[in-house]
Amino acid sequence: MVQSPLSKKIYDASWAELIRQLKYKSKWKNKLFYQIDTYYPSSQICPRCGYKNKEVKDLRIREWECPNCSSLNDRDISASVNIMFEGLKLYMKSGLGTASQ
User: Using CA atoms, how far apart are residues 91 and 84, in angstroms rounded to an integer?
Assistant: First the structure.
């Protein structure tokens, strides 16, 4: 689908508003909000062994086999698992996930 410059701006503004609302609501409810990098390759990383497969950048590839551990990966499920773990890494790096608290 080809987007016009206007529709891209509307999309970007909508996404920015969603992020703003999530941050606001998290703070309001005393919850944590972690935003991972926009360019994090979540669908290219095998959630089982961590191998980054650069050959699956093409969005038409919906499933791929990891050349390192031979697991079959669904692009969307792999992305969701990897995003969850990246968020947990950010949480642990923040120092809030230590056992001393």
Answer: 11
Show the beta-strand stretches assigned E in the chain.
63-65, 72-74
Quick check: 1 pLDDT over 60? no
Domain map (residue ranges) of the chain: 44-96
pTM above 0.85, yes or no: no
Closest to 42 in 3D by CA, of 72, 73, 86: 86
Pairing of strands 72-74, 63-65: antiparallel
End-to-end CA distance of the chain: 49
Cα dihedral sign, 83-87-90-22: positive
